[in-house]
Write a structure and sequence with these properties.
Number of domains: 2
Largest sheet: 6 strands, mixed
Keywords: ATP-binding, Nucleotide-binding, Transport
Protein name: Branched-chain amino acid transport system ATP-binding protein
Order of helices and strands: EEEHEEEEEHEHHHHEHEHEEHH
Strand content: 25-35%
CATH superfamily of the largest domain: P-loop containing nucleotide triphosphate hydrolases
Strand order of the largest sheet: 9-10-11-3-12-13
CATH architecture of the largest domain: 3-Layer(aba) Sandwich
Oligomer: single chain
Helix content: 25-40%
GO molecular function: ATP binding; ATP hydrolysis activity; L-isoleucine transmembrane transporter activity; L-phenylalanine transmembrane transporter activity; L-valine transmembrane transporter activity
CATH class of the largest domain: Alpha Beta
InterPro entries: AAA+_ATPase, ABC_AA/LPS_Transport, ABC_transporter-like_ATP-bd, BCA_ABC_TP_C, P-loop_NTPase
Number of strands: 13
Shape: globular
Number of helices: 10
Domain ABC transporter: 6-276
Mean pLDDT: 88
Low-confidence stretches: none
Bound molecules: adenosine-5'-triphosphate
Length: 280
């Protein structure tokens, strides 16, 4: 393992009166699998949304591979707003769109699988691949990047082969069984060549055997594609088995962090989360 790849510093995300993420600081080092766990409504998905540019954090800063990708605090750079009700005003903010963040090397999957259900398996992966392509409306219209398109297609077919999805390449995404839809969603994320992969409840809806297979799959893709992984998950077997470190969030705040052994023994975590799971 080597240096820091993701640094989240004092990040807060407020929706009106709701503080979904409260002064959160986390670090992820290259090559690690890090889990973010906590009860329902703890702020985990909102944390992912702030890291991936879906939301601009109300406060705090996110750094990826040493570059600031979101910043909104008094020391932040002043930016002029050109649209919206605050047009013309200056704001202390640095923010990127989700597409820009994907291009920088962060990919994610969602709690509820988000595929283009009426498109084929191959088309789903090709669309993700195009986020990284050097296309514009002109080159796309006149197909000037034909060589690049063919290369993208070859790479997507190879990826589907590696993920055992090649036999279904022409099938509609919606026709795949649930477990394979999850795998396709992860393949789409991999098609963008990420360095950091964020997985939001990848085992949701899976039985114990599928969850075990998924644990092995996550470790496999991490090693095969040299990934760093940050994941949100409620299946504690998976979390404890594959995580190098765990952060625990509750009511937006970080309440604990450490190795799986340390977190399992932490009384705050047992009270806020693990105890509840055992009793359920
Ligand atoms: N766009 C939004 N507008 C208003 N409130 C929001 C919004 N997004 C999230 N919240 C609120 O922020 C809090 C944290 O939600 P979040 O989805 O991040 O939790 P979570 O830890 O991911 O929960 P779960 O494990 O159930 O997915 C909740 O109270 C939620 O209702």
């Amino acid at each position: 393992m080597s240096g820091n790849i993701l640094h989240v510093e004092n990040m807060t995300m407020q929706f009106g009166g709701v503080i979904a993420v409260n002064n959160l600081s986390i670090d992820v080092n290259e090559g690690e699998i890090v889990a973010l766990i906590g009860p329902n409504g703890a702020g985990k998905t909102t944390t992912f949304n702030c890291i991936t540019g879906v939301y601009e954090p109300t406060n705090g800063c996110v750094t990826f591979c040493g570059s600031t990708i979101a910043s909104n605090h008094p020391q932040g750079k002043m930016k002029k707003l050109y649209a919206g009700e605050n047009k013309g005003l200056y704001k202390r903010v640095v923010s990127h769109t989700p597409d820009q963040i994907t291009k920088l090397g962060i990919a994610r999957t969602f709690q509820n699988i988000r595929l283009f259900k009426s498109m084929s398996v191959l088309e789903n992966v090709l669309i993700a691949k195009h986020i990284r392509a050097r296309q514009n409306i002109f080159t796309a219209t006149f197909r000037l990047n034909y060589r690049e398109e063919r290369k993208a297609r070859r790479e997507c077919l190879a990826l589907l082969d590696e993920q055992a999805l090649l036999p279904m390449k022409d099938d509609l995404a919606s026709s795949l069984p649930y477990g394979l839809q999850r795998r396709l969603e992860i393949s789409r994320a991999l098609a963008t060549n990420p360095r950091l992969l964020l997985l939001d409840e990848p085992a949701a809806g899976m039985n114990p055997q599928e969850t075990q297979e998924l644990s092995e799959f996550i470790v496999q893709i991490k090693n095969k594609y040299n990934l760093t992984i940050l994941l949100i998950e409620h299946h504690m077997d998976l979390v404890m088995q594959i995580s190098d470190r765990i952060y625990v969030q509750d009511f937006g705040r970080l309440i604990a962090q450490g190795t799986p052994e340390e977190v399992q023994k932490n009384q705050h975590v047992i009270d806020a989360y693990l105890g509840v799971v055992e009793d359920a």
